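Appendix B. Extra example for self-study. Work through it before the problem class; the solution is given directly after the inputs so you can check yourself.
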Amino acid sequence: MKNHKKWLSGPYAVWAAGFTIIPLLMIVWYAFTTEEGNFTLENLTQIAAPETVKALALALLLAAVSTLICLLLAYPLAMILASKNVSQTNFIVLIFILPMWMNFLLRTLAWQTLLEKNGVINMALRFLHLPALEIINTPYAIILGMVYNFLPYMVLPLYNVLIKIDRDYINAAKDLGANSVQSFLRVTLPLSVPGIISGVTMVFIPSLTTFVISDLLGGGKILLIGNVIEQEFKQVNNWNVGSALSLVLMFFIVINMVLVAKYDKDGEGTTF
Amino acid sequence: MKRQLQRIYMALIVILLYAPIITLVVLSFNSSKTRAKWGGFTGKWYAALFQNDTIMEALYTTLIIALLAAVISTVIGTAAAIGIHSMKRRARTVFLGVNNIPMLNGEIVTGISLMLLFLAFRVRFGFLTILLTHITFCTPYVILSVMPKLKQTSRYTYEAALDLGATPLRAFFTVVFPDIMPGVLSGFLMAFTLSLDDFVITHFTKGAGVDTLSTKIYSEVRKGIKPEMYALSALLFVTVLVLLLLVNMNPQDSKSAPTFFRDAEGRRHFRFSRRFLLGRLVPALLVILVAGGGIYYGARAGNGNTNDQLIVYNWGEYMDPEVIDLFEEETGIRVIYEEFETNEIMYPKVKAGAVAYDLVCPSDYMIQKMIDNDLLAEINFDNVPNIKNIGSVYMEKSRAFDPENKYSVPYTWGTVGILYNKTMVSEPVDSWKILWDSKYSDSILMQDSVRDAFAVALKYLGYSLNSTNIQELSEAQSLLISQKPLVQAYVIDQVRDKMIGNEAALGVIYSGEAIFTQKENPDLEYVIPKEGSNLWIDSWVIPKNAQHKENAEKFINFLCRPDIALMNFDYITYSTPNTEARKLIEDESIRNSTIAFPDDEMLADCETFQYLGQDADELYNRLWREVKSK
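Solution. Structure tokens for the complete assembly:
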């Protein structure tokens, strides 16, 4: 019986081969060839160019900081959500998905209106005689944009693992004399590792590769690796170099996949 | 106490998530066209929305793609999940690993890889390519949401059903499927939402004439978002919010239903009907609405034979939409209109030939590059008698890039200069020098395009803006690097909104934008610096692979008609080379404006960009990238 069912995944296998695997091989192909189609390693040397290295380093830094902030913001939130009763949580979880129905670009642009020198936030601050917030066109605005856009991707997997933790474990820990800090550190936290890993991945990767957020909130002054790649493809029109740079990103993606495979074996920390 | 803290924390997060959304809703009621200024309360954008065909078409494309992608990926994904579930451990790991790739891959990598695939197999970019890519990135989410539910099902109930004589199909649908239904549903919802919200992947895989809301918005970002777009987003958001509220008020899990069973008969009936209404009828109606709208707009898009088409590729916000309507009415030719943001984005698209554009509007140096690369067709001027309305001086100037006036017809022209705010800048502005004055630190807006940025620096240094001399260019580069700390932002057309909103004191801007900004904010003044600047011309050209060349010529001729040229001038406020149209301008101050129509003396030191060859292009790009990453 089982052997028959296996074939149900056939269509997806074909699909994944055609639209996931082969396209990735195309990137590899482009990365190692010239415009005329001859083999070359020259595109890869572009990775070492100082401005590329700088863009990559900055992207890694900003992505790491935003991921950390997301984790710190989302963990308490997920715990609060998980402690509510079920009928409420459905609604609360929807609250985090609902903003996605408003276009991502518009939401990010709205932050421009909020953060600008004469923007909404500064007008309010000025009215209250508070010092102005001057973060638009700086890396801080980009971090804000990343946290804002990707926070739900951190909250939901954390919520999904936390809600599955059996209350009895925590009660048992308390019966055995653990205080709430200890029971958190020794029981809740270790049990939520799959959710953390999944959430970190879901925030880190899009932050690392974004070009829209840095474009809209960074004032074009801050170049991340995503911007460099986008420009190679859409403006400079050198697809071979662009592909080579994408390979670098794939390297980080592979690292992430290994991490996920190691810590989240059963796919427990799924986002949705 | 703890509860209070929890409440406050939740409230703060919700404020963070919803502040931009509230902003957008407020902006949808702003009667001023720019987001930088509150012009009073209005509901007109909501009315305008339903008359704006391009936005409505984009909306339906988005919804249909989201619906199809969600349905198809739910079917494929659910089947795949069942298959994977019954696999041996090792095969399962491999499968799930592959499944993870589209999710873990940066969107940009997924988008690029699929673009390369479609190019390699010569798939025409359009609706189909978007749909295929959306299914590709949605399916993994469906699989991931169905898998955990499958794990909770018991194999034995299924086998019991088989033992009792059910066919495998029936056993599946009566025993297994109800158990995994929540996972399938949430997978579907997730797929729909992701598809709806996607920009990056669509950005790389869309074709001409097809826009989703995301790509439409992105092309509007540079020019300022049309207020109708805010209205649409607000409507969409409120609709979904109301739907979700209704569905959530309803007891959705069947477990709670029996408790109401024991209640009065009438109550049970009430519950049932509302549940039917919300669970079945409303979604069904929505589907019909979307499909109906899609067919309506699809039919409009596809009607008539392809001979009566014209595919136009123009700058964003660079033509009065009514002009297109008029042309369609007069000739019966259907115009497919697409926009680009920069010459550099336009060029590879035309060159790749994935879409055969009939009419494109590049700038001077890019036209030269296209001529050099043999991409353009000669225009048959017998079909363009209205060329007589174009001032001879502009035809003369065009010879700089089109030596025999064979390939191009001037559409707009202008200069690049400094727009400054009189209340923030006290001294007279007459030189590029002021852009390096540290007094205006963080109040300077520079152009975010290679040639324009370098033109400013080169002109300031007294060199030609077509310089290829490495010495001169590196001087210009260090000048630009030294300027970077003073620059508030590198932008293209956003200079307009930012200057209107008093965000900056000085901005480098195209003369055409200056007239519009002055109307909105009278404190602004435009000047062409004394060192000289760029004199640019945007002209219509016909690519060699155009399928409807005669239609293109008809359209050029139409655009050269004085009344039409005037309509466009009023709408986009970029100087027109159409001397007959200029005579028709009613407002004398604009007809004689030196911003729109500077005299020869002011243009004495202005140069037109030339195409400098591929090596120089690469040099410019490299130098500029170094500036940007400093």
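Self-check: The CA atoms of residues 113 and 119 of chain A lie 5 Å apart. If your reasoning did not lead you there, revisit section 3.
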